[in-house]
Amino acid sequence: MPFSFPVDGGRGWFAARRGAVRYGQRVEPDHDVVWITTRRIKPGTYGEFRKAWRPSAIPAGMVRAYECYSEDRHEVVGISWWESLEAREQYRLSDVEAERQRVMAPFVEAESSGLYLGRELEIPAR
Over the stretch 37-52, which tens digit does the pLDDT of each residue have? Predict the structure, then answer.
């Protein structure tokens, strides 16, 4: 059974193979916690948006992060990996994240976000 998340900003539960699991419980070792956010930004504001987008402090529990942007720089995708669902949720609800959202708001036209469990795929050598 695939993992699924409700569309409620990640505050709910997810369904796993062995039944419902709540935030704060251990994630299976072969699964990563990945937060993906896509933002459509106002034309010509990428530089300003990028400065606003960076958090003032590296979040506790964040393992790695990527910024991806479209060629015209009107769409930016943030992908971050977290130690646990709980670590991501604590950051999402933090004052640091609230301030980051406030500073980004003038540059953002639309935003969507999802929280996922996944794993790195092994690519066979050619």
Answer: 999 999 999 999 999 9
Rounded Cα–Cα distance for residues 25 and 8 (Å): 19
Residue that has been written with the tokens 């937060």 in this structure: 35
- Cα–Cα distance for residue pair 35/114, rounded to 1 Å: 6
d(CA 21, CA 15) in angstroms, rounded, equals: 7
- For the domain covering 28-118, report its CATH number: 3.30.70.100
Query: What's the CA gap between 73 and 36, in Å, rounded?
Result: 17
Where do the structural domains in the chain lie, given as residue ranges? 28-118
Q: Please tell me the pTM assigned to this model.
A: 0.73
CA distance 27 to 31: 7
CB 53 within 8 A of CB 67: yes
Q: Above 70 in pLDDT, residue 6?
A: no
